[in-house]
Amino acid sequence: MAKKITENIIIKTAGDLVNTREQTRAGFIAMALEKNYIAVPYIEEAKALKSLANQVKKPKDILKVRDLSIGLLTASGLSDKALNYLTEEDKILAIKGLIEEFLEPAGTNFIDELVYRYLLIKGDALGGKARNLAGSLGERKFLRSFLSVLNIAGIKYQWKDSDTKSWLDKPKNDNGIEKRIKALYWKKGKTDRLLVMNINVPLVSKNVDLSILNGEPGDFKVGKQSIIYIHDKYMALGELKGGIDPAGADEHWKTANSALNRIKNSFAKEKLKPQTFFIGAAIESSIATEIFKHLQSGTMNNAANLTDDDQLIAICNWIINL
Questions:
Q1: How far apart (Å, rounded) are the C-alpha atoms in residues 158 and 220?
Q2: Would you tell me the crossing angle of helices 21-53 and 133-152 to the nearest 10 degrees?
Q3: Crossing angle for the helix pair 133-152 and 110-131, nearest 10 degrees?
Q4: Do 229 and 202 meet the contact criterion of CB atoms below 8 Å apart?
Q5: Which residues does residue 201 pair with via DSSP β-bridges, in sequence order?
Q6: Gyration radius of the chain's alpha carbons
Q7: For helices 21-53 and 110-131, what crossing angle results, to 10°?
């Protein structure tokens, strides 16, 4: 028989999962602030472009300033990827087109025109980063809460740096490490646990956002000797959706639910039943009702609204104590 909703879950009704207006508003503001933060390098580059361009008096003379070459190519509409396919002659031709078609017609305001066009093209790159922003912010919020629960409980941990690929001990100051965590290890009593972010689970043949395994850092190796290939080491698997826009809530849940069903079916073929859970930043009423039914029937073991601190802490504590 499926394991039904337990006392470990603080969700008592479907309505508990639904975002309040304040939570949605706070999520949008957090996204806006983060977009402004990642835009800072582009703004500073535009300032540098304007300062260097001020050395010339006429648009045609701008070609003589070698330090402006990349900035001019960007303002011409060329991406970094496109530059790999162009010769030096091609690049000069593109810049001349920028000068003749846009900078010269701007008259004495040609430098402002240059900066505007540079920022316009860079805005596309910013948009690309922004599209991945919700997921990144969601992961960071989850990990920050997870580390907080470990710290409050006095549980030592190790973490795998996504940049260096090294396992590191808990630092004295762990501020900001949630941006670089690929995996976490902790020991409670005699149990060893690994939390691994965004791995392709071999048995499922798909990426899973959060995987909790019974193992140690040395077990998380490269290649087929890794613990991720040992099916019965999986304790729980979960989906994390950080998008805050209510308009996308239904699609996020459908994607997550499909992934969780695929996980359950894949492990069931091996006669295994790891626990499953869902964490979402945008949960509307109809979705909440469906999630709650899954919890009540035991087809899903836990859930939380990412924007609700109590629910997020509760599910982190649940994971730590699996």
A1: 13
A2: 120
A3: 60
A4: yes
A5: 206
A6: 25
A7: 140
What are residue 161's phi and psi, to 5 degrees?
A: -75, 125
- Cβ-based neighbours of 184, under 8 Å, separated by 6 or more: 143, 146, 157, 158, 159, 160, 194, 195
| Cα–Cα distance for residue pair 256/258, rounded to 1 Å | 5
pLDDT along the chain (322 residues), means of 10: 54 91 89 87 93 92 88 90 89 93 94 94 82 83 95 94 93 90 93 96 95 96 92 97 88 94 96 96 94 93 94 95 92
**N-terminal to C-terminal alpha carbon distance within the chain:** 19
Going by C-beta distance under 8 Å and a sequence separation of 6 or more, which residues neighbour residue 49? 68, 71, 75, 114, 115, 118
Residue with tokens 């300033």: 65
Residue 207's H or E segment, with its range, is: strand 206-213
Task: State the sign of the Cα–Cα–Cα–Cα dihedral 162, 164, 167, 172.
Answer: negative
> Which pLDDT tens digit goes with each residue over 85-118?
999 899 999 999 999 999 999 999 999 999 999 9
The pLDDT value recorded for residue 6 is: 52
Classify residue 299 as exposed, middle or buried by CB count within 10 Å of its CB (0-12, 13-18, 19+). middle
Q: Which of 157, 239, 163, 168 is nearest to 192 (CA)?
A: 157
Two tokens, residue 86: 């162009």
- Residues 133 and 35 sit within 8 Å (Cβ to Cβ): yes
Centroid of chain to Cα 94: 36
Q: What's the rounded Cα separation, in Å, for the pair 233 and 209?
A: 17
Picking from 26, 28, 11, the residue whose alpha carbon sits closest to that of residue 248 is 28
